[in-house]
């Protein structure tokens, strides 16, 4: 099983013909992703050869969906044009839009998030500023390395891209149903709670690993959701225990106000909901192993 992405997913790439899009389309194809097209209005009607696999380029998301039945779009579009690209995906009502782009203005992210809501949330947005998601052995939509883990019974949801990779590697012998990188910006589409609900409903996910980071209150809200709705064991990690007090760190979302948003406050909220929280990624992996063998 999997959440949001399966071997049957038909993926298009907005921005496929750019350098980053080309590089990662090639890697996604190598992971077995069913990429059925790219989108670039200036190159519509052409195709790109990826080591013998011809991928057609369409003028719009709507046209790509009509011609291929695509149900997922991965966006490698520069920040200045990302809002228009996401709005185009929402207008076409593609079920899943994975926004990899970093550096999108928060105002733009808020605008396309609100637009998706106003349109009835027919398009699930993952990101922006995220590594995407992978269902090992089935499909990979984004930039997560496909060779660091295998199919298994852990579901992973993470704000941080690099910590997603580290946790997948640490638990590679057990493997994952799906791993979802939701991104660390202040305004994102899919949240920890959305992924937790999907993993709770997935019969093959036996354990959930949740990675958060300092700033905001997403992890505290996730803790409330876990307490009320999640029956499976959850293991957590919060990045930022060693962050200097009062300093804005890394991701745009990592803004701490008073005691709210600190790693310690998040750890306490999660532990109060029955989540075992590691102080390091390696300790978190050990806690996950222990929870699975309990």
TrEMBL record:
Catalytic activity: GTP + succinate + CoA = succinyl-CoA + GDP + phosphate; succinate + ATP + CoA = succinyl-CoA + ADP + phosphate
Pfam families: CoA_binding, Ligase_CoA
The protein's name: Succinate--CoA ligase [ADP-forming] subunit alpha
EC number: 6.2.1.5
Keyword Nucleotide-binding: yes
One Gene Ontology term from the biological process aspect of the record: tricarboxylic acid cycle
Primary role: Succinyl-CoA synthetase functions in the citric acid cycle (TCA), coupling the hydrolysis of succinyl-CoA to the synthesis of either ATP or GTP and thus represents the only step of substrate-level phosphorylation in the TCA. The alpha subunit of the enzyme binds the substrates coenzyme A and phosphate, while succinate binding and nucleotide specificity is provided by the beta subunit.
Gene giving rise to this polypeptide: sucD
Lineage of source species: Bacteria, Bacillati, Actinomycetota, Actinomycetes, Kitasatosporales
Gene3D superfamilies in alphabetical order: NAD(P)-binding Rossmann-like Domain, Succinyl-CoA synthetase domains
Keywords (A to Z) from UniProt: Ligase, Nucleotide-binding, Tricarboxylic acid cycle
Organism for this UniProt entry: Streptomyces eurocidicus (Streptoverticillium eurocidicus)
Span of domain CoA-binding: 4-104
One Gene Ontology CC term in the entry: cytosol
Keyword Transit peptide carried by entry: no
Assembly mode: Heterotetramer of two alpha and two beta subunits.
Pathway involvement of the protein, from the record: Carbohydrate metabolism; tricarboxylic acid cycle; succinate from succinyl-CoA (ligase route): step 1/1
Listed GO MF terms: nucleotide binding; succinate-CoA ligase (ADP-forming) activity; succinate-CoA ligase (GDP-forming) activity
InterPro entries: Cit_synth/succinyl-CoA_lig_AS (IPR017440), Citrt_syn/SCS-alpha_CS (IPR033847), CoA-bd (IPR003781), CoA_lig_alpha (IPR005810), NAD(P)-bd_dom_sf (IPR036291), SUCC_ACL_C (IPR005811), Succinyl-CoA_synth-like (IPR016102)
Highest taxon in the source lineage: Bacteria
Residues at which CoA binds: 17-20, 43, 100-102
Family to which the UniProt record says this protein belongs: Belongs to the succinate/malate CoA ligase alpha subunit family.
Binding-site residues, substrate: 165
Active-site residues from the entry: 251 (tele-phosphohistidine intermediate)
């Amino acid at each position: 099983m999997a959440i949001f992405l399966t071997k049957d997913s038909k993926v298009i790439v907005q921005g496929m013909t750019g350098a980053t899009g080309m590089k990662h389309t090639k890697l996604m194809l190598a992971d077995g992703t069913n990429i059925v097209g790219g989108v670039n209005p200036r190159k519509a009607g052409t195709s790109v050869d990826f080591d013998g696999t011809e991928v057609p380029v369409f003028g719009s998301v709507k046209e790509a969906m009509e011609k291929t039945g695509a149900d997922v779009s991965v966006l490698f579009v520069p920040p200045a044009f990302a809002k228009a690209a996401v709005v185009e995906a929402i207008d076409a009502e593609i079920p899943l839009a994975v926004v990899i782009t970093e550096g999108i203005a928060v105002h733009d992210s808020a605008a396309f998030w609100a637009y998706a809501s106003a349109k009835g949330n027919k398009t699930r947005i993952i990101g922006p500023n995220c590594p995407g998601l992978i269902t090992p052995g089935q499909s990979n939509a984004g930039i997560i390395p496909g060779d660091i883990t295998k199919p298994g019974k852990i579901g992973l949801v993470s704000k941080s891209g690099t910590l997603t990779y580290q946790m997948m590697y640490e638990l590679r012998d057990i493997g994952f149903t799906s791993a979802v990188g939701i991104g660390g910006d202040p305004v994102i589409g899919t949240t920890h709670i959305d992924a937790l609900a999907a993993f709770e409903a997935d019969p093959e996910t036996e354990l959930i690993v949740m990675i958060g980071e300092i700033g905001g209150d997403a992890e505290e809200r996730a803790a409330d959701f876990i307490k009320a709705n999640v029956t499976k064991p959850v293991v957590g990690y919060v990045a930022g225990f060693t962050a200097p007090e009062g300093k804005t760190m890394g991701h745009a979302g990592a803004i701490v106000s008073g005691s709210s948003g600190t790693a310690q406050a998040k750890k306490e909220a999660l532990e109060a909901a029955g989540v075992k929280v590691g102080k390091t990624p390696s300790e978190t992996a050990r806690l996950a192993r222990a929870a699975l063998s309990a």
